[in-house]
Each structure stands twice: as C-alpha cells, then as structure tokens.
Design goal:
Blueprint lengths: L7 H18 L13 E6 L2 E7 L8 H9 L7 E4 L13 H8 L3 E4 L11 H8 L3 E4 L3 H7 L1 H9 L3 E9 L3 E3 L11 H13 L2 E5 H7 L14 E5 L18 E5 L5 H8 L3 E4 L2 E2 L2 E2 L1 H4 L7 E4 L3 H9 L5 E7 L8 E2 L15 E9 L2 E8 L9
Parallel strand pairs: 3-4, 4-5, 6-14, 6-15, 8-9, 8-14, 9-10, 10-11
Antiparallel strand pairs: 1-2, 1-3, 7-16, 12-13, 15-18, 17-18
Helix pairs in contact: 3-4
Amino acid sequence: MSDEGIGLEAAKVGEQYMKAALKLAARGRGLASPNPMVGAIVVKKGEVVGQGYHVYSSKDHAEVRALREAGARALGADLYVTLEPCNHLGRTPPCSQAIISSGVKRVFVAVRDPNPDVSGGGVEFLRAEGVETVVGLCEDKARALNEAFFHTVEHRTPFVTLKLALTLDGKIATQQGESKWITGAASRRAVHRLRFENDAILVGIKTVLQDDPSLDVRWRRSSQITKVVLDSELRTPLDARLFLSGDPVVIFHSPMASAERRNALGVRAELHEVACSEHRLSWEGVLTVERITSLLVEGGAEIAASLIREQRVNRLLLFLGPRMLGSRGISAVGDLGVERLADGPRWEVIRTRRLPPDLMLELRPEGKFKEGES
C-alpha cells in the first residue's frame, strides 16, 4: 500500500482520499496530453478544502490548482497527489516550491515520476524542506491511470493500441472491401472516444485510398491529434480528407519514394523516411515521433499482422459485431507465419464491455499485464 510504513488506520483514510484524487485526475483524459493525468486534493481536519486536476491548455499543474482553491486553509493540511510533484522549471514554476509556500504539513504521493527531469527530485526536495512525504499510496492504480506515459518514458516508444472492428468469424470487410457498418453506433462512439484519448491515429495507405478517412475526433482536445500514415511510395492524395482539419499529419515512407512526391506532400505533411524490407516499413523507425505518447492503430489486416508479429501491440481492442461473412470475407489479421497452434500469439482477456448490439474485448499480450492496470 505504501513504501513508508504509515499506520494502518492512516493508510485506510489516506487511500480514500488518494482514490478520489485518481478519479479527479481521470477527468484530464485526452485533455492533459502530452503531460500525464494528475489529480490533487488538499485535506484539513477531515475536510477537502482544495482540489484540482491537470489540463494541458491551462498550464497549471494539479497541485497548484488544488492549493489555490484551498488558499490559507492549506496551512497545516495534507496534500494527496497522484504523481510526484515536479521540482524543475518547465512551462510552469516548480510545484514543489508552491507546496512549500502553501504551508502544507504532509504530502502523500501515489507514485514517483519516471521522467528523468522529475524522478525523486520533488520528493527529496519536500523532505529536505521538512515536509513529511509518504510515497506509494495506491501506486498500482496511479501507474495504471498513466500507463501510456510510463511506457513511453521507460521504453522511448508510444503505447500502442490496436483496434479492430470485426465480425464474429473474424472478418473486417467483404471481398469487395465493404465494411460499413460491421459494428453499431455505440461501438463507433466508443472508437471516437478512443481517438480523443490518444495522441495519434495510424492507418495504412490502403485505408487512405479506399476509404479516404478524415480521422477526426468528435470532442475538442487541449492539444492537436496527430494523424499518421504508412505510405511507402507517398501515394497519399493531396486532397485527402485527413488534411482538412488542420491537425498535423505525419507520413512515413521508404527511401524509394520519388523526389516529386516528396516535394508535393512535403507542404501538407511532415515526412519521415524509414527503412523498408519486403515492402514493409520498419516499426523501429515508425515508432519514434517524440510528441506521441499513445498511438491508436486503425490499419488493415497487414498492419495488424505486422504489429503482432513484431510484438509491438500493448493493448488489443476487438469490437465484435453480430454478423458473419464466411470464407469470402477479408480476415482481420494477415499472415502471422504460424505453422503450429503452440506458436500462435496468446492474449489475456482483461475486460469485456457490452455495446449493444456489439461486444468489446480488451486484451493484453499474455504475461504482460499486472493486477490493478485495468
């Protein structure tokens, strides 16, 4: 529960407030990015006197918003914060200094910040200034809330969610490419929510040419969403709908793409040349855009197969529509090179959700999911 050995009763009370801070932090989903979601609550004599959560556009961090609301009542109070307070000058002054100035007596931190600019610095500064600081209350839940942020800092690649809308027999379209609509309106709303919560959406050039998707998000984000296209030969049309919103478009292409197409598309999108083998762009090169913490992949069967083969999928979301297309339908996942059943990738079902008439399954690669991360 905590790595500081606080008393059992205090821990139970503290857990109640930290869970409230985590719920508050979750309000920043899709609004805090590219920063992590953070919630903070100021408690004095059993009463919540200040609270706040981070929204990127407002700049102020959760601690500052909570302390501002508490005002003079912060003196001698407890502060519960879901992520270690920063101790460096960034877009805002250090939160650790604001905490000291407020007169808060004790600080509960759910989890240390893995960011090298922060890690340990905020906690150690508070302790050095005489503020009792407890770390580890609801740590697993705090890590789960910001799993994309932790993954990106620790692995230097985006947290990848592969989304597939498919029939009960695993098809994503008819032989003629018809896919609208395999799933119902509730599933489509859930997908738009997913887009809102992620920093970027990725599709392949086949999807762009066949469907001409806008890849827009229905809700207004604090930061723009990045639209990513895998396009070896730079065949993306200049009048593609994905350019209309003004959101940044990033196109990955092979060294073989012509200079003419580079010049034409270079004024509409950010182009990145990456290695290509057997007409497939290297994921090592693709998963490098620094501003992207979370990536939602909505590509077709070949992109899905490539990601799964190279073990690049962190979360798999299946939206199952109550239809069947049989052997003539297009499979949701392309060739995985599996010859024996024992060699097929295995997944753990973490969560199911009914979206009438559909069913959503959330899965993780077997052995990669820890309790408390749902």
